[in-house]
Amino acid sequence: MKLKNVLIAVNDVEQSRQFYSDLFGLDLVLDNDGNMILTDGLVLQDKKIWKKCLGKDIIPESNSCELYFEESDIGGFVERLEAYYPEVQYVNRLMTHSWGQKVVRFYNPDENLIEVGTPM
Questions:
Q1: What pLDDT, in 10s, does the model give residues 72-114?
Q2: Predicted structure pTM score
Q3: Which of 3, 22, 42, 119 is most deeply buried (CB count within 10 A of its CB)?
Q4: How many CB atoms lie within 10 A of CB 37?
């Protein structure tokens, strides 16, 4: 068995596609009317579709999971983040853990948690 994709519910799939393209260089693989598959296995699904599928409300800023990315040039990434999305809501600004890894945590426009860290 193989993990194929990770799906996140979003308010606006096109806005989210642009966000992940701007910051992470992810490209569109498939656009299936409210369900976009991006490179690296990230799936963006319209919250209305996801809510209908689950029969439950979507809980923004639930903090129950995060998308984790690694970036060698973490300073350059933070500059790009602040240039493209100056209104970003941080959980923690760029910091260094006791083991030496530099990380930044923030929410995407749909309040899904993202962490970007230097490679371990």
A1: 999 999 999 999 999 999 999 999 999 999 999 999 999 999 9
A2: 0.93
A3: 42
A4: 19
Q: Are residues 52 and 10 in the same domain?
A: yes
Q: Can you give the pLDDT at residue 60?
A: 86
The token duo for 20 is 């992940």
Please check whether residue 27 is in contact with residue 21, taking contact to mean a CB–CB distance below 8 angstroms: yes
d(CA 28, CA 10): 15
Distance CA 24, CA 83 (A): 14
> What is the residue type of 110?
D
**Tell me, what CATH number does 42's domain have?**
3.10.180.10
> Is residue 67 domain-shared with residue 120, that is, in the same domain?
yes
As a whole number of angstroms, the distance between CA 51 and CA 42 comes to: 18
Structure tokens at 88: 């970003």
Enter the tokens of residue 10.
Answer: 């979003």
